[in-house]
Amino acid sequence: MNIYLHLEVLIRELDSKLLLAILAASRGHEVIISDEESIMKGLTRKFLSPGIFHTKSLTPSKSKILKHKKIIDTGCKITSIDEEGGLVDYKYDKFAKLRYSTQTLRQASAVFTWGPNDYGSLKKIYPNSSNKIHMTGSPRADLWQPFFYEYWKTNKKNQKKPYLLVSSNFMSGMHIKSLYERMKQFEVGGYLKRDPELLKVMWPRESEKCKLIALFIDAIKYLSSKNRKKYKIILRPHPTENTNLWKIFLNGVPNVEIIKDDSISYWVNNSFAVMHHCCTTAFEGILARKPVISYVPFNPKHTKKLPSNISLKVKSLKKLSKTINTIFSQSKLINQRNRNKSFPKIVRNKIYIDKKELAAGKIINEWEKLGDENLSRSNNWFLFKLSLKIMKLNGILGGFFKKFINNNFQKRENFKFPKFNEKSVNEKISKLQKVLDISEQIDCKLLSDRTLLIKQK
Asked: Quick one: what percent of the chain has pLDDT higher than 90?
């Protein structure tokens, strides 16, 4: 069967998409991991045959509804799990109304959920699509579990000093896009219509986030000055944050690294503790059995409280330093003690973990139920690869033309989906095969800078 995996944010989704792809390939399926445009053009030009198109959300914007209609018209079946997850809210109902609609659920053949919370909410709000909604868990959450520790494990020889991971989630004021660009995106995506209160909440929330940025900078400087001999600090910006801004703010602060490479799961698993404020990394750290600290220097009124409430909450700099020092000095003991620790009820409600089967396996099971002969026809790989090269050439020529007519034009890098690193991808595939004990030989071909083909040799 042909399976097309839409990847939007590389560092957030690549590893989980590779997990899905390798498991599916080991069961005889052929999998493409790529951006939406490349897959769509391959399908509409009939270089790619119909298959399962698995997308990262069913947001009811006009453009997405139109795109999905075109994909369905090629004979494909659409499935989805929302990569945003809605984990930071206690309730899922508002998220379900913003990110789904009766129309987008009608277009989908199957919808997969992270856990009981989103599963129950979606079935309640969209009862006519109830039979399409499946509680599988998320492949991303699969990778947060200790079972995959060897996958994330670093070479200790390269890790000269233990580190505290500071996970940033302050997009306001740090975002790569301007405020106008973000507001335009909300308008075009229909968010302002679906949530009339958004503008009222946005401004005070933006103000709170800017205040938190300043206080987190002070905290990082304080921890650096007090503990530089013990451990280093790694700041991990959110995928949408401007890393260069962080470099300016923390310029000259010793013992601090700002790193945006690889999945945050890599940095979580190799840290001795995770520090954050209102970040889904809190869930990831807890599932990875790491101590998770939420620094709450004041009581924000417009910031989600769930991630902080499931963490060890600290309000002052002195208490923060003392808490982290205690965790650091007892890190080996804490890691051993946390291995059998049960998760809080709210975590179990948000993220479904089946110890007998991975979420990725459950999703593939549902794909196979949807499969038929039409979804298993051969693809024209030669023409598809050629079309990808033409797309790349057109992009280069378009950039030259825009520069020619406007000397001030600067092409913006694709911060969400930079080019694949072939060596890194192959290393990840090899590690996953080892962890999953997959004996079938898996072939990975780089068809373009942003398109992978994964199948059995």
From this structure: 72
Q: Is the pLDDT of residue 17 over 90?
A: yes
Q: How far apart are CA 201 and CA 186, in angstroms?
A: 14
The span from the first CA to the last CA of the chain, in angstroms, equals 15
Measured CA to CA, the distance from residue 128 to residue 120 in angstroms comes to 14
Contacts for 66 with CB less than 8 Å, ≥ 6 apart: none
Nearest to 80 by CA among 101, 63, 55: 55
Q: Is 59 helix (H, G, I), strand (E, B) or coil?
A: coil
Strand-strand pairing, 442-448 and 451-456: antiparallel
Segment 437-443 shows an average pLDDT of 91
Going by C-beta distance under 8 Å and a sequence separation of 6 or more, which residues neighbour residue 435? 147, 148, 150, 151
The side-by-side arrangement of strands in the sheet containing 442-448 is 133-135, 108-113, 77-80, 52-55, 2-6, 30-34, 451-456, 442-448
Nearest C-alpha neighbor of 222 from the set 319, 311, 293: 319
Q: Contact 93/22 with Cβ under 8 angstroms?
A: no
d(CA 113, CA 120): 9
324, HSE (Cβ side, Cα atoms, 13 Å)? 33
pLDDT digits (tens, 9 = 90+) for 138-174: 999 999 998 999 999 875 545 678 999 999 988 777 8
Report how far residue 371's alpha carbon sits from residue 75's, in angstroms, rounded to the nearest whole number.
12
Greater confidence (184 vs 379) lies with 379
Strand partners, 294: 276, 313
Q: What is the pLDDT of residues 396-413, one digit of tens each?
A: 666 666 666 666 656 666
User: pLDDT tens-digit profile of 250-294?
Assistant: 999 999 999 988 899 999 999 999 999 989 999 999 999 999 999
Name the β-bridge partners of 110. Answer: 79
Question: E strand or H helix at 338, and its extent?
Answer: helix 331-338
- How many Å apart are CA 177 and CA 194, to the nearest integer? 22
Helix axis angle for 10-26 and 422-436, nearest 10°, is 50
Residue with tokens 């110890």: 355
